């Protein structure tokens, strides 16, 4: 089957309704209740407040750009692009909506829906990653083909897909912007979901920067020689001292070492920048 590539963007398959490229007779007024949503829509969440705003705008000024649909059977259509406009038009109480009717394969429908959202920056990072993965699985594509289809570099696709290796809880944090993508990518260095969730909790509670998170993870994933040194140190240390070090490390978000003697000792708190020192002092002042 020949494939239409979408690397040039939406204009490759979707005529721009207000650019004059679509003859007037190709834009139809369609019963809004005869249109079904795009089953390949990558977007999982729609902001109700923004939909209300768009609905009000449509009531006041009308629909400026038509949606794009595919005719499934006589009088029944499937949405290809413009789901926010379609939803807002329904909220506005429109009976009919302007639409460009074109024929698309299932793969093209998914690509168009994905590109539309990418160009408008409407997808969160996990929705984007899931959409790439669905293209790969449902249409037997390789990453390079997905990259060509959506006009992205192969490394962009690869880095996006790696987010799907995160613990489900971490994916939820990224979707809701509790964690940044930068923080999330550093967690991929950890072997288990439990470790990822534990470090994520520290990031959130201690407001760690990405650089601070990288240092923390580097400590947790030190090479075997360093691990043996740590084990040796642990064997020699009082378990109560180790527990205190661990509490301080979690509280301050940095490495803490206690050298405890018979009558006296010292606490060493490591920091790696002026910014990190200020953060540690802020925690100590609380």
Automatic annotation (TrEMBL):
GO biological process: chromosome segregation; positive regulation of sporulation resulting in formation of a cellular spore
Major subcellular location class: cytoplasm
GO molecular function: DNA binding
Pfam family, one: HTH_ParB
Residue span, ParB-like N-terminal domain: 28-118
Region of interest called Disordered, as start-end residue ranges on this chain: 1-23
Entry annotated with the keyword 4Fe-4S: no
One Gene Ontology term, aspect cellular component: chromosome
Family designation: Belongs to the ParB family.
NCBIfam families: parB_part (TIGR00180)
Protein name: Chromosome partitioning protein, ParB family
UniProt lineage: Bacteria, Bacillati, Bacillota, Clostridia, Halanaerobiales
